[in-house]
Write a structure and sequence with these properties.
This protein is of the alpha+beta class. Helices cover 30% and strands 20% of the residues. The strands form two sheets. Strands 1, 2, 3, 4, 5 and 6 form a six-stranded antiparallel sheet that branches. Strands 7-8-9-10-12-11 form a six-stranded antiparallel sheet. Helix 1 packs parallel to helix 2 and helix 3 (141-162) crosses helix 6. It is globular, with a radius of gyration of 20 Å.
């Protein structure tokens, strides 16, 4: 638990746990969706990496107060905390999605939190309602903690990359729909209407998410041998797919229409941080240069004399 190096976690070794945990994060994410005011591109629905797991951060409770829900992958607990410190906890252990959903509802009710969500997963082909899903019931605490440690490392480097941009840029945040950690830069121009097409997800969701020209990157735990880092542009400018990017292990996937970098290529690199930052920067360069972004106006240069490390 105290290791700081980039951990290995084979995708095939935790499929059952990943599919269960994906749906658990959707239960919690939908609570944030129900409670938080709308923010452009659905930024109000995401979770954030913490030193213990993933959190909603503070959400309005509807009675003039706030509350937070956190997945603690160190102690393997789901913790609901209302302003003032009152808490309810439930164990993260092998249990069905239906059981998890019922326990969360019970905990919310015990805290007088009246929350109603649409109890159906999104961006998943097998969209069994949460209260009926008894098939997904796996939780390997070792795998869950390794996944969180992957997110900690990815979040740290994505945050450093985010700091290089002075224009409109998202937080580094976890989208529970696709189960990926992402950060997105924007050129400032509007984009063509997105066609949608995500499974069990209204096209209007993607229309809002992709309303403006962007370059996005992040980490997804479902690709490659150990997951994959990705980068894409919307709309994709001419010549983007053929642009030179680093490191050599990175490639453009015509199936996904994005650049991919296997997680294991970063993990085993002599300098994982520099390797990943090189991928993030060169894929952004490809989008910004070929898309005609005003890079001089958008990219951040500290004011002369600024001392960010002090």
């Amino acid at each position: 638990m105290t290791e700081t190096r980039w951990p290995a976690l084979r995708v095939d070794d935790w499929t059952a746990t990943r599919e269960t945990l994906h749906r658990w994060t959707q239960v919690v994410g939908k609570i944030r969706l129900a409670q938080a005011p709308m923010v452009n591109h659905w930024w109000q629905v995401t979770l954030y990496v913490t030193p213990r797991g993933l959190t909603t951060s503070a959400m309005p409770s509807g009675d003039g107060s706030t509350f937070e829900i956190e997945f603690d992958f160190c102690m393997h607990r789901l913790r609901i905390t209302v302003a003032g410190g009152t808490q309810r906890e439930l164990a993260l252990e092998p249990k069905s999605v239906a059981a998890f959903y019922a326990e969360v509802e019970e905990a919310l009710a015990s805290l007088d939190l009246a929350v109603r969500i649409w109890p159906v997963p999104v961006e998943i082909e097998d969209a069994v309602p949460f209260d009926q899903d008894t098939a997904h019931a796996s939780y390997d605490p070792v795998a869950a903690q390794l996944f969180w440690r992957q997110l900690v490392q990815a979040d740290r480097v994505l945050t450093a990359f985010r700091a290089r941009f002075g224009g409109k840029v998202s937080p580094v945040h976890f989208f529970w729909g696709a189960m990926d950690l992402a950060v997105t830069r924007f050129s400032g121009r509007t984009a063509p209407r997105h066609p949608g097409g995500a499974p069990n997800c209204g096209d209007w969701v993607m229309v809002e998410g992709y309303s403006h020209e962007l370059a996005s990157c992040g980490f997804w735990p479902g690709g490659g041998e150990e997951g994959a880092f990705y980068a894409y542009a919307y709309p994709e400018p001419e010549g983007y797919a053929a642009a030179p990017v680093t490191p050599d292990a990175a490639f453009y996937s015509t199936d996904f229409r994005q650049f991919l970098l296997p997680y294991e290529a970063v993990r085993t690199a002599a300098d994982p941080d520099a390797t990943l930052l090189g991928f993030l920067q060169t894929t952004y360069d490809a989008a910004a240069d070929r898309g005609g972004w005003d890079r001089a106006a958008l990219e951040y240069v500290p004011v002369e004399g600024a001392r960010p490390n002090h």
